[in-house]
Each structure stands twice: as C-alpha cells, then as structure tokens.
Give the backbone structure.
Amino acid sequence: MELIGSSYKGDVKNGRIEGMGEYTFPTETKYVGEMKDGMFHGKGVLYFPNGSKYEATWEKGLAKQETFTFADGLVYQDKDWGYCDSYDRCFYSESCNGLKPAGESQLTDLDPPRVIPDGCYDCGDGFYNPITRVVSAYTGTFLRNADDQEHEWIVRTCRKAWDEIVGYDPDI
C-alpha cells in the first residue's frame, strides 16, 4: 500500500490499516507493530535511520509506556539521568570504554568521528549544506530543508568540516 511517500505492508481490515504491520515514512523511519483504525495501537517500535529506536505501547496513536534507545545502545532514563548532565559531560562511549589519555581528544561519541564533506556541518542526524540548506542522511538521502531557525542553530552549534584558528588576537 503506497501512501503519499509512505508505504505500508501488513494487515488491512475494511480498507483500513489494522492488525500487525510495517509502516515506513518518507524519512525512512519505520514503525513495526500493532495498528488499529489506521493508528499505532498496541505494542510497536519506531526505528530511526540513525539506528535509534522508540519502543512503546500505543493507545489510539499516543505512546503510553515508552523506552528510547540511542543508536549507540544508551537507554534514556526519565528519572535519575546521569549521562551528559552538568556534572558529567563525557560521551557515552567514554563512559563505557574509559577516557582517552591526556592530549588526545574525542570530538564525538563516534571515534574516530565521521568525515564531514567540504563546506558542510554534522548536525547529528546527517550532514547540512549551508548553501543549499539541505540536511542529508549520512547515507546521502534527503532528510529535510532547514528553515532559518535550524540553519542558525546548526551554523552556531554543530561541528564543521573545516578548522578555524582561534586563540591569541593582538587587537583585543
């Protein structure tokens, strides 16, 4: 079943999505699980292109009991979240594998980090080209066009493909 850029494989009842199925969004996010009357209903998992997943028990499209697992295996905890808080700013892989020796930096949770294409930024779910304002998945497929707010955030915050010299300025 093809649905405006999305697709569905699974049970159908009276022309409606119902039962077990697999719904794939245009962003390549995939839901696998139970459906009722065209909505997520029952147990199901959203699998994201970056490898993370969101497992939930759904009621009429709303998640009631949920667990989010990042692509690196870190499970989000709603309470007593000790990862990347004001006291501990290390990456999850550093928590699991230990810190690097003095003088060696770990720039991202992925070590070595992804190589960013020239002129682009790594915005967490893909690479951003500020000239075209397009975010592409790490695999190269289109994800979205960035609006002004996202553009400004990426340019201000995200890791870029080039180095900039920072440090001593005699005019300051």
About this structure: The chain has a mean pLDDT of 86. The two ends are 64 Å apart (CA to CA).
